[in-house]
Amino acid sequence: MDRASLRKYFLMGSQDCPPGRKPVDILKEAIAGGITLFQFREKGKGSLDGAEKVALGKQLRAICRDAGIPFIINNDVDLIEVLDVDGIHVGQTDASVTVLREKYPDLIIGLSVSNAEELATSPLHLVDYLGAGAVYPTTSKNDAIVGQGLEWIRSLRELQPDIPFVGIGGITIGRAADVIAAGADGVAVISAITKAKDIPTAVRRL
Fold it and tell me: Which of 155, 154, 15 is nearest to 74 (CA)?
């Protein structure tokens, strides 16, 4: 995994977009600002499903491909081949990393870890990067855990000095530098970009 591709990791689904703003336009503006990776996360209240989700995914996938940005999906295993994705990110109780790696040997696989116990029991040899968090409290997920703080970022880097990982959860423009200084290779954000008045500038400031 190219650590540089984790530096400005953008997650978004249609449910994250403010009224009047289209996912396609937001993604294009975020790419113009310099995001390094995009995760399509169509999940939660107000999200699309079925054919509508696939159609949006194809649009966003095409934009990422044209820009040379890795396109990751969030645990939607059924979309791996439909969208010809570059990778998938899963949580501790989501699709099995072992099964995914066996079936898709060339797929980028990311795994969420929120504490040392999860880290110790995770098949780290099968994943390309980790998502560490939630660093700060966040409202972007209905099932979000309590913020673990920068100490978890520092601890993870000490325990795993070589594995690429991105900090996620409640990260704002003002907090991004602290997360990276604590040991993360990058920051993963949703609202810091989707809710920004000037998206390209927001991305550049992350």
Answer: 15
**Annotated catalytic sites, by residue?**
41, 112, 141
Residue 93 to residue 101: CA distance in whole angstroms:
16
Q: Can you tell me which residue has the tokens 């500038």?
A: 201
Q: What angle do CA 136, 79, 165 make, to 5 degrees?
A: 35
Name the band, by pLDDT with cuts 50, 70 and 90, for residue 142: low
The answer to whether the Cα torsion of 20, 170, 91, 123 is positive or negative is positive
Q: Quick check: 64 and 71 in contact, CB under 8 A? A: yes
Take residue 75 and report the two structure tokens written for it: 């645990």
- Candidates 13, 60, 80, 3; CA nearest to 36 is 3
Omega prior to 134 cis, within 30 of 0:
yes
Q: What is the pLDDT of residues 91-108, one digit of tens each?
A: 999 999 999 999 999 999
Hey, what domains does the chain have and what are their CATH numbers?
3-205 (3.20.20.70)
Cα-based distances in Å from 147 to 65, 79, 118, 152, 195? 33, 30, 16, 10, 21
Give the pTM: 0.95
